[in-house]
Specification:
With about 425 residues, the protein is an alpha/beta fold. The chain is about 40% helix and about 10% strand. About 45% of the residues are buried.
């Protein structure tokens, strides 16, 4: 496992991507901890009322989260609720900023938290190296989004989505009112709106370019395919293809490049950072940002009135991209799997965890009560769940050492159109060679 984690860590260093809501394929093989899991399965399956199992729960578990902003507030409150119902248990949250790198190191050294998130580099072929199967969890898996993406080749489920996000433009309605514009539904209308916003001194579209990761929606194969073509196959379309940057990707990446060329992004794009972007979106200094539904609540927390924040689909889109926020699993090294299983179920019941991090539960039976997502879906564009990505895509991408977000930065800043296309052509050639 240490050798595999070294490989994972190298992949992360070569291709870093913060996904506030990304989906990773999570297939695995047959577990080697069958004895521990079978005991837990009995506890869960024979426990309709939970009274008997509750009395046996004790000890401590640690949950590692990337939601550092709510570790001491809503997540702590959720843990306290569980501990009050189960005296003798201790639930501790650990907030980690550089999550993927830290977790990679911790897991490879045998110090994995009891419950942690699936990270980039873990594939459907390796999930059983890190997590216990969750099949004994008393949940109707057909009601949970992205369950197929967390199912191993052996038919066992190794992780569960903690929430669901929807991609679109987050916008400040007050800024729109000041510029006298309405929500654009076509690409032409979108650029007209940008022009009018610029005329009144408002930055039309924010990027947080300096921090790199915030531009991920513009160069995401899955997002681009659903938005532009309504195609749920996403990355799988590129396996066997001569182009990893095809016309669909050029359209998505070309849009942000055109925004830059027309002066519709931050004035000093190379110093534009994430923290300032959120401040500017809250104040209306910046009008729009291409992101997902986890963001609006943060803009409101930053001072914007809730009624002045909204979401609309990518202009002209044929589908709204859905993604899981993150997927949680129970470490194979967990010394108290019974408690971990009980708490994981508690997190997911009634959407507790999703509410704690201000997003939507991955439970299909839950009614959408988020006003931002309700507006996003009110424009008549259907939400689409992406296909499970073949692990071969990421293996090939890592093989050619493609960091698509850094590439996008270079592509956007290139003034010459022919030179910009040449950059993409070079990566297409590497893609073909890697497949051969």
């Amino acid at each position: 496992m240490k050798k595999k984690m070294v490989s994972v860590l190298c992949g992360i260093m070569a291709c870093t991507m913060l996904v506030a809501c990304g989906t990773n394929p999570n297939k695995g093989k047959e577990t080697k901890n069958s004895e521990a899991v079978s005991t837990e399965d009995k506890n869960v399956d024979n426990n309709t009322n939970n009274n008997e199992t509750e009395s046996t729960l004790s000890g401590k578990i640690v949950i590692a989260t990337n939601m550092t902003n709510v570790v001491d507030t809503t997540l702590a409150a959720m843990a306290n609720e569980f501990m009050a119902a189960h005296p003798g248990t201790t639930i501790e949250y650990e907030g980690i900023k550089d999550y993927d790198s830290v977790i990679s190191t911790r897991v490879s050294s045998g110090e994995a938290p009891d419950i942690f998130l699936v990270i980039d580099g873990m594939t459907t072929d390796t999930l059983d190296d890190y997590f216990l199967p969750l099949d004994g969890l008393d949940i109707k898996w057909d009601d949970i989004y992205f369950s197929t993406q967390n199912t191993g080749s052996d038919g066992k489920i190794y992780a569960i989505a903690d929430s669901v996000n929807y991609a679109g433009f987050v916008y400040n309605k007050a800024a729109f009112r000041e510029a006298g514009v309405e929500v654009p539904t076509t690409k032409e209308e979108f650029f007209t709106v940008c022009e009018k916003l610029k005329e009144v001194g408002i930055t039309p579209v924010g990027t947080a370019f300096k921090d790199v990761w915030p531009i991920y929606p513009w160069v995401g194969w899955d997002i681009a395919q659903i938005n532009i073509n309504g195609n749920a196959k996403g990355k799988n379309l590129y396996l066997g293809s001569n182009e990893i940057f095809d016309t669909t990707m050029v359209e998505s990446m070309g849009t942000i490049r055109e925004l830059y060329q027309k002066g519709f992004l931050e004035a000093d794009i190379m110093s534009a950072n994430w923290d300032q972007l959120k401040v500017d979106l809250s104040s209306g200094k910046t009008a729009m940002y291409y992101s997902e539904s986890w963001l609006p609540a943060q803009i409101v927390e930053g001072g914007a009135a809730a009624e002045d924040v909204g979401m609309f689909p990518y202009p002209g889109s044929k589908g709204v991209y859905m993604s899981s926020g993150k997927s949680y699993g129970i470490s194979k090294d967990c010394k108290n799997p019974e408690l971990a299983m009980a708490y994981l179920k508690f997190m997911l019941e009634d959407g507790r965890h999703a509410k704690a991090i201000s997003t939507l539960p991955a439970d299909k039976t839950s009614k959408i009560q988020d006003s931002f997502v309700a507006e996003l879906l009110s424009y008549g564009v259907s939400a689409v769940e992406n296909e499970v990505t073949d692990p071969e895509f990421d293996k090939l991408r890592n093989k050619i050492e493609l960091d698509e977000q850094s590439l996008l930065m270079t592509y956007v800043m290139e003034k010459d159109d022919a030179a910009a296309q040449s950059i993409l052509d070079g990566w297409n050639e590497k893609w073909v060679a890697a497949q051969k």
